């Protein structure tokens, strides 16, 4: 009863405008790795238990049409840090990428690190008095000179290695060690809570980027056993029980951070943002049955990570900020990862960089009114690489989405995405005028950002086109010798 009264009072204060936004809110960005649009309960997943993420949606705003800027991790991370579409910088594939030397086209090599002259979102917030922190996976350059502490983050704990106890560590920080037997998301939550407690006296920006739910699949046995039993009872194959357990680990991590914010009395002064870097994975790009499992399904969405279909780029977004966001609201406006940069800068009272193009648009109007529209004509993607699909670019202009393949085939797909979320009906053959218009706009955009394009491959060999090669070694990827990762701590 007391909770109902408090919630009713909050709603009244919000509606009357009595509750006002903090001058400089704390910002906590939880950036999950490879979590798909259908991987949590509030996005209609009825298999995995995600009570804390679902509660976050009930207390904030859920976005139905939010997109990762890239179909794989590094491009989206580049876009988020820079406020730009990553095609401007050239980080269009994951660093360091992979290679198919005998395919129809030669794909461009990605820029191998976020340039140091890029003004990151952390660097934009610091002059406004923010303390900045980064925890987890970085993947925007391997050398020490390209790490978060060189890109505006006061506290940096870049963690390498997969999820199970003893398999990961903080790079270059012997003073930061997990507890014995500690799962990685639990350790990342510990570091995040310490950062919040240590910096609560002034505004802070914390980006938490766990490696979960990225493969290799690995979770603690109690959760895995729970989902194995549930899968058997329901006779359900996907999501994989270990993957489901990994999602629940993330849910607990989110809950611990939200609880820590509440315990420090910071709830009304803190914006919590929950999202993912790209769509969910169905199976590894070089899948081998002896070593790999099928991971998840994003149905009704088509495609997966590494594809410009909806399953590869549409991801969850939940934002909780009590003074500004009405609880339980839903926003259907198309939005994208690089919108975070101007949003955070506006709320912080900071300034956008003068000599750096910002492609993002502030989400503040949507946070105030979920039915508002941004004054933006279209969203664009450029993924000129082989992964789970062929090299392609795409554009979404309100109800319409066009995908143009860049592998020399000339293939085009057109969908009325507003009523065909599953991209089941390719209208390119009957909507030639729409196709011509969107192709022209997509091509003009590519020119405007100097997007790097594939080139015809004189070494094209259809018998060898399927081969994956390692860009570092210059040799074929030995997928057949790969072994299955231990699924739980009991299998180590």
From TrEMBL:
Q: What is its EC number?
A: 3.1.6.1
Q: Which Pfam families match?
A: Sulfatase
Keyword Signal among UniProt keywords: yes
Keywords from the named record: Calcium, Hydrolase, Metal-binding, Signal
Tell me which Gene3D superfamilies the record gives. 3.30.1120.10, Alkaline Phosphatase, subunit A
GO molecular function terms listed in the Swiss-Prot or TrEMBL record: arylsulfatase activity; metal ion binding
**PROSITE patterns named in the record:** SULFATASE_2
CDD domains in the cross-refs: ARS_like (cd16144)
The prosthetic group or cofactor this protein requires is: Ca(2+)
Where do the record's region annotations for Disordered lie?
450-492
Q: In which residue ranges is the amino acid composition biased (Basic and acidic residues)?
A: 461-492
Instruction: Give the signal sequence positions.
Output: 1-21
Q: Does the keyword Hydrolase apply?
A: yes
Domain Sulfatase N-terminal, residue spans: 25-350
Record-stated family: Belongs to the sulfatase family.
Question: Could you identify this protein by its name?
Answer: Arylsulfatase
Q: Which organism encodes this protein?
A: Gimesia chilikensis
């Amino acid at each position: 009863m007391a909770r109902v009264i408090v919630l009713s009072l909050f709603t009244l204060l919000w509606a009357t405008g009595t509750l006002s936004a903090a001058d400089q809110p704390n910002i906590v960005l939880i950036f999950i790795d490879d979590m798909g649009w259908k991987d949590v309960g509030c996005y209609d997943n009825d298999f995995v238990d995600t009570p804390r993420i679902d509660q976050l949606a009930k207390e904030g705003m859920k976005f139905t049409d939010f997109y990762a800027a890239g179909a794989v991790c590094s491009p989206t991370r580049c876009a988020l840090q820079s406020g730009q579409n990553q095609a401007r910088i050239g980080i269009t594939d994951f660093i360091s990428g992979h290679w198919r030397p005998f395919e129809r086209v030669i794909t461009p090599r990605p820029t191998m690190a976020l340039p140091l002259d890029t003004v990151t979102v952390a660097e934009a917030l610091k002059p406004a008095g923010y303390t900045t922190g980064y925890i987890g996976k970085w993947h925007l350059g391997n050398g020490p000179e390209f790490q978060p502490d060189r890109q505006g983050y006061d506290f940096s704990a870049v963690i390498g290695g997969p999820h199970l106890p003893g398999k990961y560590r903080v790079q270059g920080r012997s003073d930061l060690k997990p507890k014995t037997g500690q799962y990685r998301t639990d350790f990342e939550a510990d570091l995040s809570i310490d950062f919040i407690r240590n910096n609560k006296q002034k505004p802070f920006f914390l980006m938490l980027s766990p490696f979960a739910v990225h493969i290799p699949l690995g979770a603690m046995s109690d959760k895995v056993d729970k989902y194995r039993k549930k899968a058997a009872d329901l006779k359900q194959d996907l999501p994989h029980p270990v993957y489901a357990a990994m999602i629940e680990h993330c849910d607990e991590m989110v809950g611990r951070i939200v609880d820590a914010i509440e315990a420090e009395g910071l709830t009304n002064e803190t914006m919590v943002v929950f999202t993912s870097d790209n769509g969910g994975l169905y199976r590894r790009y070089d899948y081998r049955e002896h070593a790999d499992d099928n991971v998840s399904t994003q149905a009704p969405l088509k495609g997966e990570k590494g594809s410009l279909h909806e399953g590869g780029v549409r991801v969850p977004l939940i934002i909780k900020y009590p003074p500004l966001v009405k609880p339980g609201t839903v926003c259907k406006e198309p939005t994208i990862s690089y919108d975070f940069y101007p949003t955070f800068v506006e709320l912080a009272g900071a300034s956008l960089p003068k000599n750096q193009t910002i492609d993002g648009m502030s989400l503040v109007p949507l946070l105030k009114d979920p039915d508002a529209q941004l004054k933006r004509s279209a969203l664009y993607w450029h993924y000129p690489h082989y992964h789970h699909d062929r090299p392609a670019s795409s554009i979404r202009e309100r109800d319409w989405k066009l995908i143009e393949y860049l592998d020399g085939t000339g293939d085009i797909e057109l969908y009325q995405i507003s009523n065909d979320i599953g991209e089941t009906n390719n209208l390119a053959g009957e909507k030639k005028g729409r196709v011509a218009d969107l192709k022209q706009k997509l091509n003009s955009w590519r020119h405007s950002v100097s997007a790097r394009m594939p080139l015809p491959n004189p070494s094209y060999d259809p018998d060898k086109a399927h081969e994956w090669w390692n860009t570092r070694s210059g040799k074929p990827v030995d997928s057949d010798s790969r072994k299955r990762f231990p699924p739980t701590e009991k299998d180590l």
